Amino acid sequence: MLRGFNAAGAGMMANQRHQDSLSNNMSNALTPGFKQDRSTFRAFPEMLIQNVESRDVPTENGLQLPFQNTVGNINSGVYMQEDVPLQTQGDIRETGLSTDLAIQNGDMPDENGSVFFEIQNEEGDVRYTRNGNFTVDGEGFLTTNQGHYVLDEDGDTIQTGTDQFEVTEDGEVVSPFDNTLIGMAYHENTNDFVKEGDNLFANEGDVAAVEARGAGGVGFQIQQNHLEESNVDEQQVMADMTRAHRMFDMNQQVVKTFDQSMELAANQIGRLR
Predict the structure, then answer these.
(1) Where is the Flagellar basal body rod protein N-terminal domain (predicted)?
(2) How confident is the model at residue 47 (pLDDT cuts 50, 70, 90)?
(3) Rounded to 5 degrees, what angle do the CA atoms 247, 248, 252 make?
(4) Interval 250-259 mean pLDDT
(5) Is 64 inside any structural domain?
(6) Terminal Cα distance for the chain, rounded
(7) Within this chain, do residues 249 and 139 fall inside the same structural domain, yes or no?
(8) Is 102 part of any domain?
């Protein structure tokens, strides 16, 4: 019976984490460039149940031999393993702002490959994003709305001096201050990318991202005055949230049933009369 408690409790925890992930997706449905998370589940290892006993052997000394009878397998529950960002292309929306840039994916040589803007985080490390909702700070540098610098192809910051600049389809910034190419990174397997906050991704894989313009077979276009919208499917997320709530409730009912059975066993079955 305690195994049933554990399995049902594990199911409640897994669905609670799944609900939290879905809530985060829904809250970022309007965040430019946001990539929704997909929750992956796994079962705990199965356990083999055996009945261990001894059998008498009809001998003069009354010999007993151990005997094992296989009962079967039992599963000890399920858990949510991880959240994996879904890197599909979001819809492109026109905003009319010169600092808004959208990446339109073209041909990709790898099924899980994609192109990203290169960003410098607060620690000075290179991170990646699809959110082109940029701005120009007080010193004339192109940054994200969170204040992270947008990098060029050499890993340097980009100074436009003003928000009156143009960006070509291949990502060249043409401004009164200077002309430079925005750093565009391509990675062959975006499953190696992990969310780090502020709509930034860190590469935790063994393969480094490369400059997209020099990667063979990689096609993309930069659309100025546009933004890539979130790829969250709100209707699907609502359906998944309803399903997760029902699964949580079902496991909760199982826990209540086991609790009532144990109460009955403790208070009535073992009662002395």
Answers:
(1) 6-35
(2) low
(3) 115
(4) 83
(5) no
(6) 26
(7) no
(8) yes
Q: Is residue 167 a contact partner of residue 182, using CB atoms and an 8 Å limit?
A: yes
Q: Would 216 be classed as within a structural domain?
A: yes
264 C-beta neighbours (distance < 10 Å), count:
10
Does residue 32 have a pLDDT over 60?
Answer: yes
- Is the pLDDT confidence value at 244 over 60? yes
Say whether both 83 and 100 belong to one domain: no
Token duo for residue 113:
């490959």
- DSSP 8-state assignment for residue 122: T
Tokens linked to 258: 């086991």
Angle at the Cα of 187 (from 81 to 194), degrees rounded to 5? 30
What number of other Cβ atoms are within 10 A of residue 211's Cβ? 15
Structure tokens at 1: 């019976």
Structurally, how many domains does the chain consist of? Answer: 2
Neighbours of 146 (CB within 10 A): 15
Residues 112 and 156 in one domain: yes
- In angstroms, rounded to a whole number, what is the distance separating the alpha carbons of residues 101 and 95? 10
Give one DSSP letter per residue of 45-62, joined into a string: PPEEEEEEEEEEE-STT-
> Both 6 and 35 in a single domain?
yes
Q: Which residue has the tokens 């925890």?
A: 13
244/203 same-domain check: no
Answer yes or no: pTM beyond 0.85: no
Amino acid in position 44: F
Whether 269 maps to a domain, the answer reads: no
The answer to whether residues 120 and 223 belong to one domain is: yes
pLDDT digits (tens, 9 = 90+) for 61-87: 666 666 666 666 666 678 788 888 999
Are residues 108 and 215 both part of a single domain? yes
Q: What is the mean pLDDT of residues 26-33?
A: 95
Helix ranges restricted to H, the chain? 2-27, 234-264
What domain range includes position 200?
Answer: 92-228
Alpha-carbon separation of residue 45 from 1, 78, 79, 128 (angstroms): 18, 9, 11, 36
